[in-house]
Design brief:
By secondary structure, the protein is an all-alpha fold. It is built from 14 helices and no strands.
């Protein structure tokens, strides 16, 4: 729930992306430090969120890298809140893109609540499966919140998770037989795939979509069914995270305007990303994402080791 910025000015007074000639500050050393996000940065982060939220490359990881390059403190609470809130724009894109499916599931669920005979419909059951499969990540989010917002909010963790997650995707492509479609989905599938979202929650860089799609492939779902299930599971998980973090984003040192701009941009870009991904997975494997994640992970290790970025 695969949660996830600050000003146009860094501590030296420069604007925009700042300079890469010295280690970039990614931690907050004082409660008085200037750390709000301006509109331009919000646009950039909205684009990054929209492109990467549903691709199996880790939106949280890419957001943290982008924040680091712009001199934004990645472990600052309002920053974490901002990145979670702009996810709502991406989730809105899912709601619009899959409106017909969601309306069907919601209608079946409502009918099943009031009419016992309607509870045998598959759409009614699937709606409950999505709700039940969200419980593990909610529990983990509450239990591990201090770690998630503390030591695990590190670019070193992001780099490692990008590479380890690649190994899972690579293995899933080879182990999974892809013999089952969406009509063959079971409650067990939904619970196991939903629980896998915890990997991305605890280890930023792992990728929520990467974890869920890989797990679904291991469960022998085909690529399209695995990707659609990942989309549907994202709705309650990321919406809940965005609502929960809203108070930190707009109640801290970030203005409402950048939050709104970032959210709208993420919606537009995410909608295009969803359409592209569903067409892509119908005919291609996830191999290109595996290679990309490894390259980014290794490059990030290099930037951190060279002192260009500070964890």
């Amino acid at each position: 729930m695969e949660r996830r910025p600050r000003t146009a000015c860094d501590v030296s007074g420069s604007t925009g992306l700042g300079t890469l000639t010295r280690p970039i500050r990614t931690t907050t050393t004082s409660t008085d430090s200037l750390s709000t996000i301006d509109t331009g940065q919000a646009v950039v982060l909205g684009i990054v969120e929209g492109v990467t939220e549903f691709l199996p490359v880790s939106s949280t990881g890419h957001l943290k890298i982008t924040e680091g390059l712009m001199g934004i403190p990645v472990d600052d609470q309002p920053v974490i809140g901002f990145t979670a809130v702009i996810q709502v724009g991406a989730i809105a894109a899912v709601l619009v893109y899959f409106f017909g499916d969601i309306l069907r599931f919601g209608t079946a669920w409502c009918h099943g609540i009031v009419r016992p005979e309607a509870r045998q419909r598959r759409d009614y059951k699937f709606a409950w499966w999505v709700i039940a499969a969200t419980v593990p990540i909610v529990a983990a989010g509450l239990a591990f919140k201090p770690l998630i917002e503390g030591p695990l909010a590190s670019l070193w963790v992001v780099a490692g998770s990008l590479i380890v997650g690649s190994a899972l995707m690579w293995g899933a492509e080879r182990v999974g037989r892809g013999k089952r479609g969406e009509d063959n989905l079971t409650f067990t599938d939904a619970m196991i795939v939903g629980t896998s979202q915890i990997l991305a929650l605890v280890f930023p860089g792992f990728s929520r979509s990467g974890a869920t799609i890989s797990t679904a492939l291991i469960r022998d779902l085909d690529r399209v069914a695995a990707t659609r299930l990942s989309f549907f599971l994202s709705i309650p998980a990321l919406t809940g995270a965005g609502i929960y973090e809203l108070k930190d984003a707009v109640g801290g040192r970030i203005d409402v305007v950048p939050v709104a701009v970032g959210t709208v941009v993420s919606f537009v870009v995410a909608y295009a990303s969803i359409a592209w991904l569903l067409r892509y997975v119908a005919k291609h494997s996830f191999a290109v994402f595996v290679g990309y994640r490894i390259v980014i992970g290794v490059a990030l290790f290099g930037l951190l080791g060279a002192g260009v970025l500070a964890a």
